[in-house]
Task: structure prediction
Amino acid sequence: MVMLALGLATLLLLLWAVWAFSRASVASIKALIAWIAAFGGLSLAVMLLLTGRGPAAISGLVLLGPLAWNWWKGASAHQTGPRPSPRRPGPMSRAEALEVLGLTDPVSDSDVRAAWVRLMRVAHPDGGGSDWLAARVNQAKDVLLGKR
Result:
């Protein structure tokens, strides 16, 4: 009876973990994988030290230590401050529109249309792009062509 309860609890825990994984963001999944790898590496080093294989543990730390340090510093450099929201309320300025389309003043209508076509090939949701990016490109085109 105890084994049945333990098995049921394990099954429920596994189902909850799958549910949480399906709802998690990519950043949190990457962080989880990094923590699992770090814990696994430290556990391996401790086990090697406890079994009398100290030189193997130390050589592994020497070889992988700088890589882990660079990864840690690179990850912390990206988290230096709050990330600005990509969605800006209000109308788009002409300078923003030029920046979105990658153009500089003076600009002709044909330049705007050519840049719009080039960017929409990549940004359109049907081609693997995002709705938000396609909307920004469309808004930039409309601002520069005087439609808004």
Notes: Confidence is low (pLDDT under 50) at residues 80-85. The CA atoms of residues 46 and 52 lie 10 Å apart.
